[in-house]
Amino acid sequence: MIISGRARVAGVMGWPVGHSLSPRLHGYWLRAYGIDGAYVPLAVHPETFEQAARALPRLGFVGANVTVPHKEAALVLVDHVEPLARRIGAVNTLVVRADGSLEGRNTDGFGFLGNLKAARPEWEAAAGPAVVVGAGGAARAVAAALLDAGAPVVRLVNRTPGRAWALADDLGGSFEVVPWERRALALEGAALLVNTTTLGMVGQPPLELALDSLPVSALVTDIVYAPLKTPLLRAAAERGLPWVDGLGMLLHQARPGFAAWFGREPRVTPALRSFVLQGLGS
Ligand code: ATR
């Protein structure tokens, strides 16, 4: 790929950043669309995050993604915050405006819904209660997206109940908090089950959750994508329930940033998916 002196440059700020799949993902789109641009990993220590983010416009960057552990810090330092990012309490996408100011967005919920819509076009948030396992940053983005898309209620299940209550208070809307020990009961009559915790990830214990109470039409999804088919998704498949893996969320959350920085709406295709998959574990 040839990068000229006029190339648009973006990147991903994280610590560590070496395992991020975003350079591979955006690099694929840049090549596929023949765009004069680059997307680079930016290893930024938490102590220097603010300076580094402020330097983006000065270095001529068009923007950046922000990943662990900088998402909350990014919300505080940007000049303009999209209302959704403020509600969630985290920013994952920075856009440098024409005047050099920094705009913060959160595209995780967009990615979550985009993945479900692409994989299961017949699924609708309004179909029934959604069960969200976890109450961290990912759960916030997922719960906000589900309520905005018309879910009648979000049932929150988290090991630490205080975090679930805080999430419900901060976001506002129709929430029920279900104790961790009673999580199987939360599945009754649900239209969606999503795991937003790290349980089921490579090196982590699985999410222990009996799916017997879940209606046969309920969709099961996981934001964990390593492994692609988590123990939760295996259990769903064994019961004959529809399920969607979490890799698509990563792919779809990247779309708004790419469009803002490089001026082209990118497509999530099977070829992109397999190219990004090849980078997993490397
Ligand atoms: P993120 O911002 O990526 O969502 P996080 O804020 O660290 O990450 O949240 C991780 C989630 O996984 C939390 O809901 C956490 O539960 P607690 O709030 O009780 O910590 C959940 N989690 C992690 N390990 C867990 C475990 N062993 N059992 C149950 N829940 C776990």
What is the number of E strands? 12
How is the biggest beta sheet arranged?
6 strands, mixed
Shape: globular
- The fraction of residues in strands falls at 15-25%
Bound molecules: 2'-monophosphoadenosine-5'-diphosphate
> Which sequence of SSEs, written as H and E, runs from N to C?
EHEHEHEHEEHEHEHEEEHEHHH
Structural class: alpha/beta
Determine the number of helices (DSSP H or I, runs of at least 4 residues).
11
Tell me the radius of gyration.
Answer: 19 Å
Question: What assembly state would you assign to the polypeptide chains in this entry?
Answer: single chain
Description:
The chain is of the alpha/beta class. It has helices spanning 22-32, 49-58, 71-77, 83-88, 108-119, 137-148, 161-171, 231-238, 247-253, 255-262, 270-278; strands at 8-14, 37-43, 63-66, 80-81, 93-96, 102-105, 130-133, 154-157, 175-178, 192-195, 219-222, 243-244. The strands form 2 sheets. It has a 6-stranded mixed beta sheet with strand order 2-1-3-5-6-4, sandwiched between helices. Strands 9-8-7-10-11-12 form a 6-stranded parallel beta sheet, sandwiched between helices. A hairpin with a 5-residue loop joins strand 5 (93-96) and strand 6. The two termini are 22 Å apart. The model has no long low-confidence stretch (mean pLDDT 97). Bound molecules: 2'-monophosphoadenosine-5'-diphosphate. 2'-monophosphoadenosine-5'-diphosphate binds at residues 134-139, 158-160, 163, 196-199.
